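Ticket 4471: requesting a sanity check on a complex prediction with S-adenosylmethionine. Repro inputs:
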Amino acid sequence: MKKKDLLDKVINEDARNILEILPNDLTITTTITSPPYFDMKDYGSENQIGYGQSYENYLDDIQKVFNGVYNRTCEAGTLWVIIDTFKRNNQVVTLPFDLSDKLKQIGWLLQDIIIWKKDKTVPWSTNGFMQRKFEYILFFSKTPSYKSNKDSVRVYDTNHLKRWWVKYPERYNPRGKALDEIWEFPIPTQGSWGNKYIKHFCPLPESMVATMIQISSDEGDIVFDPFAGTGTVLSQSAYMKRRYIGLELNPSYVKMFETYLEKTIKDKSLEYDLYKQNNNQIKFEKNILDLRALKYARVLISKIEKESNISDFKILVTKRGDSNIENKLIKVEYNFIGTIDQKIVENILNEITIKPPLSKFGIDPVFKFSNQLELETNKFFGYTKTNTHSYEKNKEIDTKHIRVISEICIDLNENDYL
Ligand SMILES: C[S@@+](CC[C@H](N)C(=O)[O-])C[C@H]1O[C@@H](n2cnc3c(N)ncnc32)[C@H](O)[C@@H]1O
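Returned structure tokens:
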């Protein structure tokens, strides 16, 4: 088939024929799929992979499909496989590992094993004594250097961060916390399809699929699913402005997918656009850098007081933009205000700024010294030497108690977080 006839469609074809179906000039960026879990479920079509097959034949067919996927994937491309173990003859069959061995033989490089923690899975076919709570997500790449928009899926929603980020901003990446290997996404229990549909097909959670698409592709890239089922991967790709191609053996699922997409595309695409506009990641980054800039001054004060008997000074903090120095994120000016011995302070600064903790703040500091400074007091916020995350509300900035002054306004209470 021609590339243009395949794009943005689910084709009712056998995934084993992938190399005949997808032409040479078609390059997939990422494949996200959950293949049949051996013979655990009958998907109602003749010739289906899994149901009615021996385990060996099943694994060989799966290998054939992923070999085709490998051949049609770009060099920087990736593959996500959602799969689970099951029990046979009173013992666990390690399908995720058997499958991953087959994929490694093709050339796929296993990059990560992720645990998808969900409320429930298909129960053991024979008695197990523990509740089943997770499935595996295997993440492969075609080459060692693969597309990965890791920064865009960092956790920066402060409701999901522990309160430490308020007091220890230097320990948090300004773009947010990296995803960990355990992903918590409940399986869909309601939706436009109704519970009966959900129960039968166990579709993947849309937000989990969205995370994978976001990590592994950009708008306009091709996302593929050789075992499309209800088409969650493909509809989500459409909402996120990716091109998509799916294969599915059962024609009634293809029809269901098309109806579902038609019903949802408008609202879900709008949701995606809104998500992109309200990019709170930028706000989080600013917050972390502001907190770091102010805390840096507080640490300077306590170190200088410890190393000398100088204590009658304040520091005026002014952000001066990005830094060009490697590993430094922002340039910040620290103006020491007071009658202090500049030489002594400079010597201390030379020593302490190249060592942790200060060297870890990502700050490229510029130091200045002023005996006195006339400040338009209503433009500035004052902080104490023990707290630079909430400004002092009822004190003038020239009171002794205030040691750090800045136009940066921060008013956070760590108890508001977890
Ligand atoms: C686990 S389900 C996929 C579920 C899907 N990820 C979702 O969110 O709904 C596996 C699907 O593979 C399909 N299938 C089985 N053998 C196939 C083959 N040889 N070619 C294409 N599709 C096949 C089944 O009909 C079934 O819909």
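Notes from triage: The chain is about 30% helix and 20% strand. Leaving this open until the requester confirms.
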